[in-house]
Design a protein that fits this description.
The complex is a heterodimer of chains A (497) and B (406). Chain A is of the alpha+beta class. Chain A has 16 helices and twelve strands. In chain A, strand 1 and strand 2 form a beta hairpin. In chain A, helix 5 packs across helix 8, helix 9 runs antiparallel to helix 13 and helix 11 packs across helix 13. Chain A is elongated and about 100 Å long. The mean pLDDT of chain A is 86. Chain B is built from 15 helices and 13 strands. Chain B is 36% helix and 30% strand. The longest helix of chain B has 30 residues. Chain B is α/β, with parallel strands linked by helices. About 5% of the residues of chain B have low confidence. In chain B, 32% of the residues are buried. Classes of the chains: A alpha+beta (497), B alpha/beta (406). Chains A and B meet through helix 9, helix 10, helix 14 and helix 15 of A and strand 2 of B.
């Protein structure tokens, strides 16, 4: 609405003209305050601000107070009133001058205090934003046992400060832009100038520039709008709530996108392998970290393929089972009315329901859900011969392993159901086909020009150092080749290259 | 939408190729009637095959137990008999977990090629299913046997054969080996015999494994007969020609290199030596054909290293001089036993169970080329030289005999 108004209106020397110009643009609202006052020397000022998002203490003390005091003590005459004088008088940094009402309104909406001065055709914009913000706490979605405990908050400035505190370097760059025609949300692009790949940076800027949307309320909006393969369930942008993760990714040559009002930072380019990495890997012993990595790899396959393989074996390949296991499955299924595939799909559905309802509930009620889930479904359903015990066990394993990959939940659920149905119809042949299909799809994805599956299956030392295992720090002397090709060497010992 | 034809074609191709190549065999696991074991006999009146199957199914949710059902059906072929069982059981038999396939003696004497043909052709039967021979009288009774330790008889027989090494008197005979040996001109087949014997008789037998299981017999059901794997059936081609008793079976397996260690040899009390058992811990067997003036001889060198595990004497037989006497006694015993088994195989059955043909084939290819058609005549008359050396090196944990205080 405001952006569309391309006609520029100049600031008038008369403050009441300015007031009416502002009022013409800004629809009347109770939080808009126009305060005009006159100092001892008959100088008139008009101050406009948004009541709830500025620091009124500073305004009163360092602006109005100082102006009236000065006027009393030093009777300056009208002719001497100038921007230079005001800037030297007001105790404020980062004062912006503007002669365009439209620009002033933009500043005003973002929380600046605007001062119009009678007799001058320039207005001053004082950035004195202040509002209540959440404390810096450990993000609940990314809890670790060893490592920094701070997480981003909803205020862009605070988030910036957290990153800057971690990387005290001349080359760390924040670039600002605004997105959302209605919300004018402040967005920051963060990168380290001498490591980042300029092609990727330009591509990111191009895509951000192409975004045409009325509102950005979270980085999730941006995520979807700048994604490479828009219809793929696999995410090609990473997100995190942790400044330490962002710092680490910046140092590998990645770019972060911060958004005002969201505690989540996006990082690009994003590779599949990052789903299997955790920041804690780098803070603990590399043996422990490598074991965890391998576990995550195994879990990824289990969570997608286990129900499918189970259904395939139980319906198409009875001969694979050892005889004793066969009889134990037969007896667990005896009396169960549904075919195995229906059972399995029902349980997958029930589990997703439990997960979803548990997620949105207040903490106290969460326990009720787990009791209902565990007792009613786990025990009673098996006892009542409604579901066979084997299926419940498989779903339990699937569920446990799926929690490791909460970031790619959507992709995993879709793949799992797809594989399960293929397994029921075609047996293990179908499961294999599904695996091939999913892999072809995953290998076809790019994230900002970088192949999504980079480093998977590579046998070169510096490629696997941070994939299926986490190599010790002294061995990781190169940055990821494919992302930080401009400045590859992480530390001195690099012999090759 | 200009590509709509292309996409339709693609989807069709993918769908059709998927549906054409898959096996389309969706059966829920609890619908399967699992055949655990089968016995093939011949109906004397109609000359049809009778297939007796032990079908197992587990019931009862958390408190699993396996129930079995035994059903006999007739058919001109075994497959027909198996299909005929649908009428009785109400489902197609599932052969994927069959463990043992037992052939009755009379069928075996007519030739087992047809039965092996069924086993190798049938898509569900595994290649490691055990093949056994049974006496005709026992055939009907085997699956009725009730062993409280095992859920079903087939599992019981399977376990018996699995532990062959310690006994040394029979061997595992998975179907792929049976098929190989039937087809091969280099060796003749030996199959273990399973039979039901009187309980008392079973107890008096020295076979420890089976007498133990008889002690655990069900008390409610009075069982007069127990199941035992004993003796071996000797085949020539695919036809059974006779049997070997326990000692001869063991010695045949020694010559076949099927057993190499862990078997025991006992000697009874004589004037010179006391009762003694040695366990063979190492053996070295060399079989070499010798062609001497166009006359074929087989030279067998067997070196055994044993551990004296039990000796009933008060004299220290493990001293240097006495030990030699003991070793000589064992050498004589084994020599005689090996001589016996080769004589039976050569003269009585004329069946090359030891695989001498293969050895000659490999070592003397030119001789084999000339004489392979005449092999069994040569085999019958062939001279076999046996050279045995027994070395008792260990004496288990105690060196000297136990002193009994007066």
């Amino acid at each position: 609405m405001i952006k569309n108004n391309t006609v520029s209106i100049d600031v008038s020397k008369n403050i009441s003209d300015n007031k009416s110009a502002m009022q013409a643009i800004l629809i009347k609202s109770i939080d808009i305050v126009y305060y005009d006052f006159e100092t001892g020397d008959k100088q008139k000022y008009l101050i406009a601000y948004l009541d709830d998002i500025i620091n009124k203490e500073i305004l009163g003390r360092d602006v109005i107070g100082v102006l009236t005091d000065k006027a009393k003590s030093k009777k300056i005459i009208h002719e001497k009133m100038s921007i230079k004088y005001l800037k030297s008088t007001i105790h404020f940094t980062n004062i912006y001058e503007s002669k365009d009402i439209n620009e002033i309104v933009d500043k005003f909406l973002s929380g600046d205090v605007i001062i119009f001065i009678e007799g001058l055709d320039t207005a001053l914009c004082l950035p004195s934003q202040s509002w209540q913000q959440r404390g810096i706490i450990e993000p609940e979605a990314e809890i670790i046992t060893k490592g920094p405990r701070e997480g981003f908050v909803e205020t862009l400035k605070t988030n910036r400060s957290m990153i800057r505190r971690k990387i005290q370097n001349t080359t760390l760059v924040f670039e600002a832009l605004e997105l959302g025609t209605e919300t004018n949300t402040a967005i920051n692009i963060v990168y380290i100038d001498n490591i980042v790949d300029k092609d990727i940076l330009n591509e990111l800027k191009r895509r951000l520039g192409e975004i045409d949307i009325d509102s950005i309320l979270d980085t999730g909006y941006i995520d979807e709008l700048i994604k490479d393969k828009q219809y793929s369930p696999f995410n090609t942008t990473g997100y995190t709530e942790r400044p330490d993760v962002v710092a680490a990714k910046l140092l590998e040559g990645r770019i972060a996108v911060l958004c005002d009002g969201s505690p989540i930072a996006l990082t690009v380019p994003f590779l599949f392998i990052e789903n299997l990495q955790s920041n804690e890997d780098y803070y603990t012993n590399f043996f422990a970290a490598s074991i965890n990595r391998i576990l995550r790899f195994v879990s990824f396959f289990l969570t997608i393929f286990l129900p499918g393989i189970f259904v395939a074996i139980l319906t198409n390949h009875h001969e694979i089972l050892p005889s004793k296991l066969l009889f134990s499955f037969i007896s667990s299924r005896s009396g169960v009315p549904f075919p195995t595939i229906i059972e399995m799909l029902l349980m997958i559905l029930v589990f997703e329901l439990l997960r979803e309802s548990g997620l949105r509930l207040p903490k106290g009620l969460g326990q009720t859900v787990s009791i209902v889930g565990a007792l009613v479904l786990g025990q009673a359903a098996v006892d009542a011969k409604f579901i066979s015990a084997g299926v419940v066990i498989i779903i339990a394993i699937t569920a446990i392993t799926s929690f490791i990959f909460y970031q790619m939940n959507g992709a995993i659920i879709i793949s799992r159901i797809f594989i399960t149905i293929l397994g029921a119809i075609f047996g293990l042949y179908g499961v294999t086909l599904g695996l091939i299909f999913i892999f072809i799809h995953m290998y076809s994805i790019h994230s900002f020009g970088v192949p999504y599956m980079s480093y998977i299956g590579s046998t070169k030392g510096q490629d696997i150092k941070d994939s299926i295992i986490r190599a010790p720090w002294w061995y990781m002397y190169l940055r990821p080749k494919i992302i930080a090709k401009r400045n590859l060497v992480r530390k001195g010992q690099a012999k090759d290259k | 939408m200009k590509h709509i034809k292309l996409y339709t074609l693609l989807i069709l191709i993918i769908f059709i190729s998927l549906t054409l190549s898959a096996c389309w065999n969706y059966t829920d696991i609890d619908d399967a009637f699992v055949v655990m074991g089968a016995i093939v006999t011949k109906d004397k009146e109609t000359n049809e095959y009778t297939l007796t199957t032990e079908i197992a199914k587990s019931i009862g949710g958390s408190d699993t137990h396996i129930v079995t059902r035994i059903e006999s059906t007739n058919g001109k072929t075994i497959f027909e008999a198996s299909r005929n069982s649908i009428k009785k059981i109400g489902a197609k038999l599932y052969w994927g977990h069959t463990m043992v396939f037992i052939i009755s003696e009379s069928v075996a004497k007519d030739g087992i090629a047809d039965i092996m043909n069924f086993i190798s052709k049938q898509k569900e039967i595994r290649a490691d299913i055990f093949i056994l021979v049974t006496e005709d009288e026992s055939a009907d009774k085997i699956f009725e046997f009730n062993d409280p330790i095992h859920d079903d008889v087939s599992q019981h027989i399977h376990d018996l054969l699995e532990s062959f090494e310690a006994s040394g008197e029979f061997r595992r005979t998975p179907s792929f080996i049976v098929l190989q040996e039937i087809a091969s001109p280099d060796v003749s087949l030996m199959l273990p015999i399973i039979k039901m014997i009187d309980k008392e008789k079973g107890n008096s037998k020295k076979d420890d494994d089976d007498s133990q299981s008889s002690e655990n017999d069900d008390k409610e059901k009075k069982i007069d007969e127990i199941l035992i794997v004993q003796d071996s059936a000797v085949f020539k081609g695919d036809k059974m020609v006779g049997t070997l008793d326990e000692t001869n079976s063991r010695n045949a397996f020694i010559l076949k290199k099927e057993i190499k260690k862990n078997y025991v040899i006992s000697i009874g009390e004589t004037e010179k030596t006391p009762t003694c058992t040695i366990e063979i811990i190492k053996s070295k067997l060399k079989i070499k054909p010798i062609i001497d003036n166009d006359e074929l001889k087989i030279q067998i060198d067997l070196e055994l290293t044993g551990d004296c595990v039990e000796i009933h004497t008060k004299v220290d037989f493990l001293s240097k001089e006495k030990l030699e006497e003991l070793e000589t006694a064992f050498e004589e015993l084994i020599y005689q036993e090996l001589k016996d088994v080769t004589m039976i195989a050569q003269k009585q059955y004329c069946s090359d169970i030891f695989g001498f043909a293969g050895i000659i084939h490999r070592n003397e290819p030119s001789y084999w080329k000339e004489n392979s058609l005449n092999w069994y005549n040569l085999y019958k008359e062939m001279q076999i030289n046996i050279n045995i050396s027994v070395d008792i090196t260990n004496s288990s944990l105690s060196m000297s005999p136990l002193k009994v205080g007066q």
